[in-house]
Amino acid sequence: MSECILLPLFQKADGKNIDYILGAKMLILNGLEDNFVFDNPVVTIGNFDGVHIGHQKICKKVVMTAKQVGGTSICISFDPHPVRVLSPERGLKMLTQLDDKAKLLSELGLKALIIIPFDKKFSQTEPEDFIKKILIEKLGIKWLVVGHNFSFGKRKKGNTNLLRQKAKKYGFGFSVVRYAKIEGSIVSSSRLRGALQRGRVFEASAMLGRAYHVKGIVIKGTGRGSTILNIPTANIQSNNEIIPKDGVYAVRVTLCSQMNNLESSPQNEVVGKIMPKCKIYEGAANIGNNPTFGDIYNTSLEVHIFDFNRNLIGKELLVHFIERIRDEKKYPDIETLQRQIEEDIQTAKKILKKRKPPLFLGAD
Predict the structure, then answer these.
(1) Is the predicted pLDDT of residue 209 greater than 80, yes or no?
(2) Which of 19, 209, 210 is nearest to 112 (CA)?
(3) What is the percentage of the chain residues whose pLDDT exceeds 70?
């Protein structure tokens, strides 16, 4: 059984509470109000939605640089996403929930995540003020690492050229990491969203470096799977903002039993322990509105787990999308639908023998 412990790697001036997410092996700090002293901070800045292979390339550079200078690797991110504040009409949907993003960043070796609450007032911060007041005076950075197209500050006036100039002025190191590419195209969060909305989950896996997953609670469904089709399914209620295109998919499913424990150390430092015991199953999933049964207004995510007969109502599952099998379709009768589902299950099993991308929160 795995175990990870959050231990403070800094000195704190005022003794206020620490914000953290269980399961992340790093400090998670909400805002910049408190006074912290980090050893030789090596910092990156960005939204990192999805934590795709381009983001991972940046974070690995941060971790490597921190080791070289004897420093602390830190990520500064924003919540909510600036686009949601400045251009809400775009209806931007997030690839990754905040707690999952934190866990992914921690797995890359980052030691601290600072989440800055983003609002219209903060958006008016001049780039020079951000550098001087936050990076220099607040954090005392040793090194800054950003992506090639990084921009920041009021009207995005800050860029890598400005940072290079200020690095010389204030005496901190500065690195720009080139983008990651797949098949000649730059990997980006927007490209990822497009792939998922088209159901191209295997392409999304390549960009993420892992299978895209949806997390949710099993709720009571109509019962048709077990009573009518003799193929039991778990109905998932999820808060994920991006669900792949309607259709049938080969999936893997993570089920964790979890015991949390919070303690205080003798120094009154908050220590979080999480001890998940997880198991991965294989299955087939359907996203859609069950047109054969006439549920045209109710989109659902249903998962059939192979060779599994436990009651999962109320349990949290992670559904990892491996490959799309087909579109959802209306069939003339239940018998035809049942034959198609049985064929889908066999197809899914063949796919799962071949396709084995890494998974988020893998089993012990």
Answers:
(1) yes
(2) 19
(3) 82
Residue 252 pairs with which residues in a beta bridge? Answer: 282, 320
Q: What six digits make up the tokens of 151? A: 């921009």
DSSP-derived secondary structure for 107-147? HTT--EEEEEE--HHHHT--HHHIIIIIIIIIT--SEEEEE
Can you list the domains of the chain with their CATH numbers? 16-182 (3.40.50.620), 211-354 (2.40.30.30)
Name, in order, each residue with C-beta under 8 angstroms of 107's C-beta and a sequence gap of 6 or more: 25
pLDDT range class, residue 267, cuts 50, 70, 90? very low
Contact 320, 212 (CB under 8 A): yes
Q: How crowded is residue 155: how many other Cβ atoms within 10 Å of its Cβ?
A: 11
Question: Rounded CA gap, 308 and 304, in Å?
Answer: 9
Average pLDDT over residues 342-346: 95
Q: How far apart are the first and last CA of the chain?
A: 6
| pLDDT, averaged across the chain | 85
